[in-house]
Amino acid sequence: MDLLIFQAPILMVQASMDGILLGILFALIAYGMALQWGVMNIINIAQGELVIMGGYIAYFMYLSGIHPAFGVIVSPIIMYCVGWGMYKLVINKVVDKDLFTSILATFGISILAQQLMNFAFGADVVVAQSNFGTTMLFNNSVTLPNAKIFSGAVCVISAIILVIYMKKSKLGRAIRATAQNARAAKILGVDTEKVYAATFGINAALCGIAGACIAITFTLHPYTGLPYTVRSFMIVIIAGLGNLPAVAISGMGLGVFEEWSDYLLGTEFRIAAVFSLLVIILVYRRFKLARKREYLK
Amino acid sequence: MNKNTLLYAGLIIFGLAGAFIFPAYKLQLSFLYILIVLAMTWDVQGGQMGYNTFGNILFFGIGMYVASSTQIAMFFSLAEWTDAGGEKTFVHTIPQFFQGFGVGILLAGIIPTIIAGVIGYGILGLRGHYFAICTLALGIAAGELAGGIEIIGAGQGMTVPVWPKGFGSNASSSQFLYYLSFTLALVTFVTLKWAYSTRFGLVLNAIRDNEDKAEAMGIHTMRYKIIGWMVSAFFVGIAGGLMGHINGYIEPTEIAFAGPTFGVFMVLMAILGGKGTLWGPLVGATLFHLFKEGFWTYFLGWQYVALGVLIIVIVVYFPEGVMGWLREKYPERFGEVVDEADLKAQVELK
Q: Which of A8, B51, B129, B216 is most buried, judging by how many CB atoms fall within 10 Å of its CB?
């Protein structure tokens, strides 16, 4: 195996830049997952499908002649309603059950969503052309599509808006209170049912933003949702719940890891590398956290 | 004759005669037996031990690949075989086919067992949803890796050796597979029935109920968890090997390491039938197979939509399963003594 990346060291810069911009996207999705995991104690396997769904909304706008970049405004609004409806139909029945029930139920939703998207948009790989052009850096040896820079900026801005909203607004306070102690919040007059629905909606809206960014920078396909779920799960378990800077950093770290493994191992092992990394991290974490047994001599 | 003996005799007679009663559905029935094995072995972890795994599909896929590649590699070059693709330039003679088949199926049981033992120590230490997600990732990672390995056909998949010409009639291939899968299901059932009645079964239930307490009582829980997983891996691996022959074709992500389909089916079947019971997975697999065939026949094109809805409905509205429901309804049939006064007191309290 001749490693192109070591023959042309500038590719390392390229891979790292790509990885960071990609990682910002992952971090946004993971933040949504951390939010609903922390508040509702639910692991949403359909997270990736929400992302892809948001992407298809942008793609649909592109098909109807509107510039897909406006998808980052339209898609979260629609996805908020989708998330709210999903909560009212299914999720509210599994909130107080054990985590495995929520994993299975959202798995069902994910299969359903994949098929519906397959019917609506077909099983082809699609991309919404943004025509943003590219930026050249370092004597034209590193190319960055402007669409990626745009999507990175959108993700950072929406994360900042969300953080301010969670700190300042009444609903944000209610969400944080419910995350700390749902029962106490209920006693103090918080309508937890509403809070849960809003949380799930916000999560879906974040996925919608990320999805619209993915539609203009990468590709969409109905069956590619699960890797996004796994990535966000991985970021959340590394960063912990409700730790936004850590989520951002580990998101970018994952992005860089992925681009590097893409260059080093080949594109066909990209997804395999992500999933194997998750297994390795979990097993490492298990040995790190394992109790030390001490015996009396 | 007591009722149970009658039931067992009935099922065995059905299994033995099934190939002649429903000759057109032979492959369907073999498929059902494979599903029963998958559901019953999932229940060793999910139901009896309380470890909800999505990863048993890993052993299914490994078994499938091991069985066919051994059968091929014993007599031909594996790389040339996969290069030739669908064209059957290499043909096994009759003794070659059966030698390869036997060794392949045996290895399909042994290799996943060893793998389960090796990775078990790392992975079974995880608890709850971390275990569930880790095993989910394990299955999918294996599929993606298999899709990148050239010698077993990469993403294209590989063909399985065909039934040797001139041996028996046309129907004898499916008959052979039918009886093998039936035997496998029978052996799995008997083994698990016996295992649940020993100390092993009790330990598994103790781990499910409270693992820390079980450990404090002096049980080496990790040892039992690994053994449990190895038992599952053995039967699932053989089931995978047979499934490769039933399909006649192996493909990494859709057939062998099919996490989103078979990996979830085995969980669903066990839950539908009632997890943590001996008969539950069997009943669940049968019902699920009927559902699935119905969907594939009557909702063609919409089958996965119907499947998604079925998953949600089962998990949300029917989590206790058929056996759980029966147990609630007729507790005395399950050997549970109902105290009438206690029941009345509970109703009054409500």
A: B51
